[in-house]
Amino acid sequence: AKELGGDNYKFYTRAMREQLGERVQIESALRRALERHEFVLYYQPQVDIGTGRIVGMEALIRWQHPEMGMVAPARFIPLAEETGMILQMGAWVLRSACQQLRTWQCEGRRNLRVAVNVSARQMAEQGFVGSVADTLGEAGIEPCCLELELTESLVMNDVEHAVTVMHELKRLGVKLAIDDFGTGYSSLAHLKRFAIDVLKIDQAFVRDLTVDPDDAAIVTTIIALAANLNLEVISEGVETLDQLSFLREHGCHQMQGYYFSRPVPAVAFGAVLAENEAQ
Ligand code: C2E
Ligand code: CA
Ligand code: CA
Ligand code: CA
Known about the structure:
Layout: H1 9-20, H2 23-35, E1 39-48, E2 53-65, E3 69-71, H3 77-83, H4 86-106, E4 113-117, H5 120-124, H6 128-139, E5 146-151, H7 152-157, H8 159-172, E6 175-181, H9 188-193, E7 198-201, H10 203-207, H11 213-228, E8 232-235, H12 241-249, E9 254-255, E10 264-265, H13 266-278
Bound molecules: ligand C2E and calcium ion (3 copies).
One calcium ion (CA) binds near residues 58, 117, 149 and 179.
């Protein structure tokens, strides 16, 4: 089934709400989906263009709905957050991604890491850090092979709590990335207090990079900021060779986007890995 893009998200969220009715029904639909194993993870490679190697992948959830077909996360994540179902869903995502990573590591890709999106509700939950530690232990994954992607708005939601949790996660040894960097409201003063490792440049700035001088300026500034703060930097939404070349010239060597691969199911990602290995 065709996936629907971000522009349609509000409309489809409303349509789904009408279709599914009240909050309780949405919640039970999401719970049923979990029980019936209707959620799947897709993986998108993160490439170091210096070496050409796939260094990791981002896990992205999909809902294989029996009637609606493949549902994009923009259509159900907001509902899952609203109802609190994001907690169980997020735990499932983390567990599945770690187990899948373990499988690929056992097949020989030792240095591979996985990036997992974290929602505000998960971050706010008591015992989140402990559950991350447990999940890593059960899957047999080194903490440094897990990267948690946090958004600025998530962090700004409750800065003091977020800073505490980030430092606990850092102590555990997991890597932290700020997702969609530049689109949120965090100030540079806050950034200094965040125990993060990676800035992830939002695809909104990458899209018109080669034609819009403002976007080019923003991107080069973020890359310089990351370098000065000793952070890694990765660009998302890289679709063209021109974008890749610009980013490389300006010092961003980690990239993710359709230019390399769309997000694909685990089996297909295994083939992407094998192909990358053979290069
Ligand atoms: P995100 O974390 O910013 O993820 C990147 C989105 O950009 C993904 O959309 C991905 O498919 C898409 N993308 C990747 N490369 C390109 C490209 O070259 N061009 C364009 N135009 N798009 C590209 P997706 O998979 O639909 O996910 C949308 C959002 O849903 C994610 O944005 C993330 O915020 C959320 N999400 C996805 N999976 C999870 C999850 O497991 N947990 C949570 N809490 N949120 C999730
Ligand atoms: Ca992300
Ligand atoms: Ca992002
Ligand atoms: Ca984004």
